[in-house]
Design brief:
Layout: E1 2-4, E2 10-15, E3 18-21, E4 29-39, E5 46-47, H1 57-62, H2 68-71, H3 86-92, E6 97-103, E7 107-113, H4 119-124, E8 128-135, H5 138-149, H6 158-161, H7 171-181, H8 183-193, E9 198-200, E10 207-208, E11 230-239, E12 242-245, E13 248-251, E14 258-264
Antiparallel strand pairs: 1-2, 2-3, 4-5, 4-11, 4-14, 6-7, 6-8, 8-9, 8-10, 11-12, 12-13
């Protein structure tokens, strides 16, 4: 699903060549039907099972974007000369990244390419977000994130995120505390990679995000299209990459490459 930051996040679902304005369907009966076909989102090969949210197994094994260092950026091995796709690495990893604080199911630290702000925050369901570092490569962002992970969460508890907005917090106060607690480690990184490799952002504004949700569930149960190919109900909200129905939730990102039809039963 594509997102656009407005007073309330605007969602668009891409189904083939069609773009569906999902916000318009809030409060209406919707049905999603999996048609039984999956195609790799990279090579378009017809497959029976997808890996890493939409890839065939050969692409999963071959592509740099499916390597373990994407999940663990501190393990980036581009400079070691062992990147699966050096050109892809130059375009996506050897570019400016942002280390940020976000309030999703609570305050967490995260990283993203500079070009993915604020999209990454909306994809995670953050209600508040604030950049705290701009760094020269994905590796450096991962190393800074690893320092902070000893003092703050780096994961979103998706069930809690879908039960409602986290309590508001003072992200600037959290940033100042972390800078003090991680000062020695940050100094060491600066000495190793140079002061221009990692730049502290001291006056970046905080972004506040509101999602199109009529009502949050008290209990979160998730749909699985592989087990239940037809799902639906009243669309109560959209947050992160989840559709929230009165009958359950579904993570649409998980089903990249799936042939799905969307219909209203009204």
């Amino acid at each position: 699903m594509k997102t656009q930051l407005e007073d309330t996040v605007r969602y668009t679902m891409l189904l083939g060549e069609h773009e569906i304005p999902l916000n318009d369907y809030l409060g209406r009966q919707l049905q999603l039907d999996f048609r039984g076909q999956i195609h790799c989102i990279h090579c378009d090969r017809k497959i029976n099972k997808s890996f890493n949210q939409g890839y065939c197994y050969p692409c999963f094994r071959r592509l740099a974007q499916c390597d373990s260092c994407i999940v663990s950026p501190e393990k980036c091995h581009y400079e070691a000369g062992t990147c699966r796709e050096p050109q892809w690495g130059e375009q996506h990893c050897m570019v400016d990244h942002v280390v940020y604080l976000a309030n999703t199911s609570g305050v967490k630290v995260g990283i993203t390419r500079g070009s993915q702000v604020p999209t990454r925050w909306m994809d995670q369901g953050a209600t508040q977000a604030k950049p705290i570092f701009r760094v020269a490569t994905r590796l450096y962002s991962g190393l800074v994130e690893s320092l902070f992970k000893s003092h703050i969460a780096d994961k979103t508890h998706w069930q809690a995120m879908l039960k409602g907005d986290a309590e508001p917090c003072d992200l600037e106060q959290v940033r100042q505390r972390l800078m003090q607690e991680c000062a020695a480690g940050l100094d060491a990184l600066g000495q190793e990679f140079g002061i221009q490799a990692i730049t502290e952002l001291v006056s970046e504004p905080e972004t506040h995000i509101k999602y199109p949700v009529l009502e949050y569930p008290t209990k979160v149960s998730s749909f699985n299209l592989d087990k239940t190919p037809s799902i639906g109900g009243t669309l109560m909200g959209i947050k992160g990459q989840y559709l929230i129905f009165d009958s359950g939730v579904i993570n649409m990102r998980k089903y990249g490459g799936y042939h799905i039809s969307l219909s209203t039963t009204e």
